[in-house]
Amino acid sequence: MARLHDLIDTATTIPSSQVRRYVDDLRATHRDATPTELIELLKRRYLLAVSASGGAVGAVAAFPVVGTGVALTLTAGQVAAFMAASAALCLAVAEVHGIATDDVSRRRALLLTTLLGENGPELLEHQLGLSTATWAQVLLTRLPVATVKTVNKTLRGRMAKAVVTKSSSVMLGRLLPFGIGAAIGYLGGRVMGKSLIEGLDAAFGPAPVEFGRGLEHGGPALASGQPDLFSDASRLVEQSDQPRPAGD
Questions:
Q1: Cα angle vertex 149, ends 127, 75, to 5°?
Q2: For 130, what's the count of Cα atoms within 13 Å in the CB-facing half-sphere?
Q3: Cβ–Cβ < 8 Å for 171, 164
Q4: How far apart are CA 98 and CA 173, in angstroms?
């Protein structure tokens, strides 16, 4: 369980500048896209990344020469990739809404709550009385940091139970031979990704009519060979120079 919390804390260090540049590049590439359309594009790219990552682990485990021990190690790596990609999506959607996400405690609370799917916002509403339609904006902009840290302690325990329950069968399924593990890994990653998106939709509600800020980066649009933010999230986290915070 401690390892899971460590992965979450690490995922929240993904650089804001990288997320902001990625969103700006997407906007430059799809100049006619509305905020709603851009968020849908972000979701599709995220689901593709987490599904492909899960399927890759299952496919490797299908080869007899690899062995279960290596497959389990790769499975742990896939969890880290899932957390990093999920954190990137949370921050990218916040960027579309024009909400700054530099505070690590607020980032952690956003990621923890969305990982709980539809149950996350309900928990915040019960504990803090926040409306499920507006809690992300309140959490990221107005709720005192001390309160956010208190909420995080509750969310950490609730999220750990939920993720372990949901992911344990998926992880075991990825170790099945003859390619069956690849299919289960792909579908499992997609199911977990969709659950996070449900929590994210509940967090922010409808997309804004207009973008919350102007473009900050005037560089070229996304090149075809440029790594995708969600596929590349784990590397960005590893290279981040932001200090790792102590757990809330």
A1: 95
A2: 25
A3: no
A4: 40
Query: What are the angstrom distances between the C-alpha of 113 and each of 4, 102, 120, 155, 204?
Result: 15, 17, 4, 7, 12
CB 207 within 8 A of CB 137: no
In order of 17, 78, 163, the CA distances from 56 in angstroms are 29, 9, 20
Q: Nearest-CA neighbor of 126 among 158, 102, 94?
A: 158
Q: Which residue has the tokens 């509403």?
A: 125
Neighbours of 119 (CB within 10 A): 17
Q: Answer whether residue 63 shows pLDDT above 60.
A: no
Q: Give this prediction's pTM.
A: 0.78
Contacts of 206 (CB under 8 A, 6+ apart): 36
E-only strand ranges, 181-228: none
pLDDT band at 39 (very low <50, low <70, confident <90, very high): very high
Question: Residue 18 has what pLDDT?
Answer: 87
- Residue 73 carries which DSSP code? H
Asked if 170 and 192 count as a contact pair (C-beta separation under 8 A), the reply is yes
Residue 35: per-residue pLDDT: 95
Question: What is the rounded CA–CA span in Å between residue 244 and residue 145?
Answer: 17
Q: Which residues of 77-110 are buried (b: 16+ CB within 10 A; e: fewer)?
A: ebbbbbbbbbbbbbbbbbbbbebebeebbbbbbb
pLDDT (0 to 100) of residue 219:
54
